[in-house]
Amino acid sequence: MLKFYLKRFAIFATVLTVLVNIYTYTYPSLDPENCSWHCFDNSRLTTLPSDGGLFEKLDYYIRRYSDDVIKTYWTSETASPNDEQRVDDVHMMALGDPQIKGVWHNTPYISRLDTFGNDYYLGHIFKTMKKRLSPSHVVVMGDLFSSQWIPDSEFYNRTRRYVDRLFNRDISLIEEIKESNHVEENENLFVVDWNKWADKFNDDLEGNRENFNFGYKDVKSWSNDEDYLFVNLTGNHDVGYSGDATYQHLTRFSTLFGKDNFWIEYDTETDHPWRLVVLNDLLLEGPALQPEFIEYDWEFLKQLVNQNFTGSTILATHVPFFKEEGLCVDKIEVNYYPEVWEKEPYKANLLRSQNHISENTTNKVFDMIFGNGKPGMVLVGHDHEGCEVIYNKFESNNTWVATKEPLADAKYHLQEITVRSMMGEFYGNTGLVSGHFNETSKEWEWKFTLCPFSIQHVWWFSKVSAIITLLAWSTLVVL
Ligand SMILES: *[C@@H]1O[C@H](CO)[C@@H](O)[C@H](O)[C@H]1NC(C)=O
Ligand SMILES: *[C@@H]1O[C@H](CO)[C@@H](O)[C@H](O)[C@H]1NC(C)=O
Ligand SMILES: *[C@@H]1O[C@H](CO)[C@@H](O)[C@H](O)[C@H]1NC(C)=O
């Protein structure tokens, strides 16, 4: 009797497990339009038969799904349809605010398990999308971790998870960094020598500003065995807002994640130059704990302007730019530490938080970066809900006004995309930026789409149901 029911259960569990796992591994194929690079040649897209009945629609979706699965798993990558294209498209994956949490000695086991699973859930999204799309660039939009109030050793431990579990990268690099940055008594406890970093920083700021080396040219990856470029942005949770950011924060970020401000120019000697600008916009405005950080940020922008760049620009930064309330989800908010702040008296009146850049600074920054009038795009994070707006540039009074739809009387339009978070609560999104050089207009065209997965429970279910199924069948064998 027991055997009879157990067998029914095992069959049911098997079917369910297979279905959920097929979904988990092929989810982008259900929405190929949003989960692929934008195809600028529209003739290749099939469309839903508009006058078809239920059966035709079903047939269309099933065919679209299976075609996509076959294309993803069984077509060789080299068979690219773009062989005749002169200029390669830019394929940039943008991942919003992973914000991974820490595990402390008093963290309950259930939260530990949750944090552990969450790492692999995020890793699954990256792995699936990377395999599917072979990006040229991967940009993580800041707030890599959930808190700036953590010791160096915890910062390292989370970096290790980020490198290994989320992004499946070689950990030997950061292990080497730890070998030369740990406390004397314990080689497991990472610590940065921020005094040394600060000396060099101030030295450069005072008289050797070219030593900041903000600029790169034609970098396609940071190491030979990688075929894409991986970029980490600073978020308020990684280095703090300017009222909180210390030398310690900047030292450990730059030691493990690279520069917070830089640009890479591509193909400057051709008719199709473009550049990626990475900006730490947390340090644009004060009052700051270390006012010299603000000076350094503006020095970066000054040097950027001095490049007299003539191409198209993608700007990637964390905090969104100024816009009227109601255009996006986060409300407009700036906080300062009070006049009397007993916990940390030295922070009185400093900038405590901001969820947008001020209007004035927004105008200035856009003028500096997009002043050449070439098409471009702004990618930001911070607002986990995501958002898309257009900045309309008015030359008469030099302002950039955000709206949902482009205003016809503006000379120039700039799209700002707030990349919806990749966290489970927001359905595990991947942002896809496609850049295509239009040979007729001789301009770059940029398009953004968002590819969601599911809340983390679906991923969990695919693993747990597999284990239960296995248990059920093994019990049956024993009985
Ligand atoms: C980081 O990991 C190391 C090695 O596992 C451990 O010794 C150390 O205590 C961890 N740091 C924190 C802050 O938990
Ligand atoms: C971003 O961080 C990862 C992990 O430490 C590292 O492998 C990668 O090289 C970093 N990117 C840059 C531009 O330094
Ligand atoms: C950009 O133009 C300015 C002013 O004409 C010039 O001084 C500067 O050297 C130029 N920068 C580069 C990188 O060519």
From TrEMBL:
Keywords: Membrane. SUPFAM superfamilies: Metallo-dependent phosphatases (SSF56300). GO terms for cellular component: endoplasmic reticulum; membrane. GO terms for biological process: GPI anchor biosynthetic process. InterPro entries: Metallo-depent_PP-like, PGAP5/Cdc1/Ted1. This is Similar to Saccharomyces cerevisiae YIL039W TED1 Conserved phosphoesterase domain-containing protein that acts together with Emp24p/Erv25p in cargo exit from the ER. It comes from Maudiozyma barnettii.
